[in-house]
Specification:
The complex is a heterodimer of chains A (134) and B (170). With 134 residues, chain A is α+β, with helices and mostly antiparallel strands. Chain A is 25% helix and 37% strand. The longest helix of chain A has 16 residues. Chain B has 170 residues and is an alpha+beta fold. The chains are: A alpha+beta (134), B alpha+beta (170). At the A-B interface, β1, β2, β3, β4 and β5 of A face β1, α1, α2, β2 and β3 of B.
Chain lengths: 134, 170
């Protein structure tokens, strides 16, 4: 799965997520990515989220919308992303990752899987990583 | 507002052999998206362009390089959402187009519906001028090997990429 979350000069947020799904999946299996609120969510008033990981688990937990609701209730992007991803893994065991931008451009990145490839550009500086604590 | 973009290239037990290609791909995608933002472009266009870049790249499970279903076929899905009016577009069970995210964007702008799948998504894409590609052109050697590995093990990992084995990841 791949995803992007952007905040433009007018303050609009947008999110895009695309995937091939899961290796060895049944013919006709549909995962979290096309399901708004699980794989993708965007709201100018709060922020945007794109998720990746074990699709059936992400969609049961509505992971993207869970992060949005935590931010709506005052959590910053990083805390909300960590709480929701860890909450999902604790509740349902399987792993995932998410990237988040708040309406103010604050970044959240968290994953309970072993790795997640990410990169972001803010104030013309490029940041990137793939392992925990990078 | 300071334009910002963040991208991801998938979560899982990513083996060391794939790390460099993934990092190169996510950096490129962020640069492509940021270029649109810095020229005053919309967040919607920026996220579509960033994802299109990764759908072209065999290091990512999307577009070319997508993983395979039990029949050895690519079946892709994508979604896109606009924070201004909560408008959405999504497609699923897409088999013969390189950029599902661009079709999803068209669903957002040109369809009264939110999610189109299978034959209907294909008809919509053709109607909107997207060119189909031979399905086998979307299949990478890595995806074929991953399916063979799955067929040996017969079970899903706890994540999206790879088995939940203790690979080289510390």
């Amino acid at each position: 799965t791949v995803g992007a979350v952007a905040l433009d000069c007018k303050g609009h947020i947008a999110v895009a997520t695309s995937t091939g799904g899961m290796s060895g999946k049944a013919v006709g299996r549909i995962g979290d990515t096309p399901q708004i609120g699980s794989g993708t969510y965007a709201d100018d008033y709060i922020g945007g989220v794109s998720t990746t990981g074990h699709g059936e688990t992400i969609l049961k937990y509505c992971l993207a919308h869970s992060i949005i609701k935590l931010m709506e209730n005052g959590k910053d992007a990083s805390t909300a992303t960590k709480m929701a991803v860890e909450g999902m893994t604790k509740r349902l065991n399987n792993t995932a990752g998410a990237i988040t931008l708040s309406k103010n451009g604050d970044v959240g990145i968290h994953f309970s899987s072993q790795r997640l490839a990410w990169a972001y550009i803010k104030s013309n500086k490029l940041f990137y990583g793939i392992n925990h604590d990078e | 507002m300071v334009p910002t973009i963040i991208v991801h290239g998938g979560a899982g037990d990513i083996p060391g052999s794939r790390v460099e290609g993934k990092l190169k791909g996510v950096k490129l995608a962020a640069v492509i998206g940021q270029r649109i933002l810095s020229e005053g472009g919309s967040a919607l266009d920026a996220v579509e362009a960033a994802v299109v870049s990764m759908e072209n790249d065999e290091y990512f499970n999307a577009g070319y390089g997508s993983v395979l279903n039990l029949r050895g076929e690519v079946e892709m899905e994508a979604s896109i959402m606009c924070g201004k009016d909560l408008n959405v577009g999504a497609v699923t069970l897409i088999k013969e187009f390189l950029h599902p995210i661009s079709i999803a964007h068209k669903v957002l702008t040109d369809s009264p519906h939110s999610l189109l799948g299978g034959e209907g998504a294909k008809l919509f894409a053709l109607e909107k001028g997207f060119s189909p590609v031979p399905p086998e052109s979307l299949i990478s050697e890595h995806a074929r090997a991953a399916l063979n590995s799955f067929l040996e093990h017969g079970e899903f990992g706890r994540t999206e990429i790879g088995m939940d084995t203790k690979s080289d990841v510390g």
